[in-house]
Amino acid sequence: MNQPRTSLLVILGCALTLLASPTIAQQRRSAPPRKQVTRPAPQPVPTFDNLFAADSYRVYVEVRGVGSLIRSPAIKDLLDPMMKLGGPPKEFKTALKWLNAHAEILAGSRMLVAAWPARPKLPTTLIAIEFASAEEAQKLEPELRGFIPTLFPSPTPAPATTADQAKPNTGASAVPPKQEVEAPPPYQMKQAGSLILLSDQPFALRDLVPRGSKSMLEDQNFTMARNRFAAEPVFLYVDVKSIEKEDRESRQKREEEARLSAESELANPPKPDETAVTAVPEDVFTVTELPKEVPIPPATQPDPSGSPQLAGRTDEQVSNGATLKAVQPNPLDFAFMSLSGLLFGGQPKWPEAVGAAIAFEGDGYVLRTLLVNGEEAKNNAIPFVPQFVTGPPLVPASPSIFPGDIDLMVAVSLDYEQIYQGMLKSFADAEEVSRKFNATRVSGPAPNADRPLETPFTVLEKSLGLKIKDDILPLLGNEIALAMPKKTPTANQPSPAEPDKAEDPAQEKVVSPEPGPIIAISVKDKEGVKRLLPKLIESLGAKGASLFAQTEKRGDTEIISYAGIFSYAFIGDFLVISTDPNAARHVADAYLEHQTLSSNSHFRNSTRWQPRQVQGQVYIGPDLVERYNPITGFSGAPVNEKMRDFLSQLNPVIEPVTYALSNDGMGPFHELHIPKSLLVLLTAGIASDAGASPMVTNESIAKSLLQTIAGAEASFSLGKGDGRYGTLDELISEGLVSKEMLEKYGYKIDVTVSSNRFEAVAIPLEYGTTGRLSYFIDESGMLRGGDHAGGAATLADKPID
Hints:
The chain is an alpha+beta fold.
């Protein structure tokens, strides 16, 4: 029995061997070489680091730890007044609720927002949310697809009209109903690896990083700014260089179009019959003989028995029994005006990029900004003030001489040499542009082309009899500071506890003058400045002023005052200057009694975060902050019940606002610290205004409309009105006032015009519903108003701030 089975197995094995032998033989023969197929490299998995090319977007925002941030006390404290007082939109509440519900999943997530595309085929705005893994992103994508439509609903479907439906219905059969075409959603969403991308229009990942382009991480400016703010929860980057490039190319394009248009007009002038020429009668123009020039007498010498004469004052001249007044031109006035224009004018020096970040530290919010400047603007800390060139870092010494009760202190280190050279260059550039412009208007050589350039510094140096660069600048140190003393309340000013107290008309108003600023300039050579100052004062306009100089002693300090309008003193290593002699005395007394700002606990505690050496420093005291907060400060707005309840839960202590400017090698670094209590008050004020009743909103807009009408009347009078004011219809037809705004906010606006006067009133259309107060304004620009039970306000109403 076993033998047949064995034989069968042997036969089967032989057969399999014979069948497999050709295949084995083919495998043993060498196969011909295969052609290599070049395949494109696989697209890398997108992340925050490789999602964009360096030239894709100009604005980049990154929020780190989204879930942790939304539940942090810093954000909750700001959201609280918005939710309680503002009545935010439904979409805002929905988004906030969803973020809180998914805070655990989003705890370690980052969100990126890119805007202002620099290349075509890119969405205007692109949002990317990064998750811990691709699985988490895939898991949350369906939830996002269900949630996003609640924030951005799709447009209403439009009915589709076919060709058959457009034909008239002549047959007996009824036309089939119109089919609605579903409108696409106003957003696009896709998942890519651990990212979920959301945009306002379709896009492809390859468009974000074209082949051969440089990634964002290869951009040195971006990497520098991002590494500097690696620890902050919110980071912002702006590519200013790309923005300037776009602006420059757009400007060149417009100039080229204008040039081509001008050349086309010259090449194809209009035919004579296309131009209507009207002859002007000879009697239209009359020639009036100009009066002879009144001679200006020479400058009068100072009278020792009188007050000091100021250069440029008015002298009297008697001619033919009449008294004529001729104002002597003062070249110094022009020089000072020119210097002021050079200091704050000129071409802005924008940085190549700006990095900024927001952080939350203790009881404050911190805003940090880094300017990535080019070589030519390396020390320029304020781009729109190109001549503001910072000096070397220093430990500010001005707080050790200013009184401890000041409201505001600003100290800065300046490089006077570079500022001086920059102003000279700016003047030379402006003069060159002016000469080129005049050369295009006048044929032949420009007038005074060979005249040596006379700068405002030259005029000033001639008057002073010295050289600014050689005789003044070497005497000065780098630090210059400004301080504002505490404001003294007026005698009849109501206290904050009695805001509604009626004013007694019989009480005489006592107006307290505003305290003058105090300027402190550090000096290297005190004796040299002492010798130079009297000469400067005499030369700069107050001739004979030394006769009225009064000197008083405060310890070892001398205070020199001139007729109670100007004073100076040398305190410590500073020259202290003020227009208020009392302020100078206060500085000297505080310095002698060691009650300076540097010993003030508010100042010491609030500036502890600053580096030891800075290039600039700002301190805003708590009293000044309290005075100008939006609720209890200058606004004087009534506080409603909701606001009163909210304020009762806040910390009433307002801390100072502080700022520092430094340079750690990467560029000018600005840092601002705002106390939490102040920012919460600001948010509450904004939210309260946003959530105000329609009646309050209408009243606010009615006041604004009357002020707009007053401005429009002034423009009309100077223009088309030729001295007269216009009716409301004329203002509307000239585009000075919007008719839609006048009819939209529940008030009736009437304007009454005479030749040289106008009166405008705003009256609520439904008293107590659309508004309660009526308003009045006339050509004086003073807004007045009151509750007239729906009647018109008049000139007799009280002014409204």
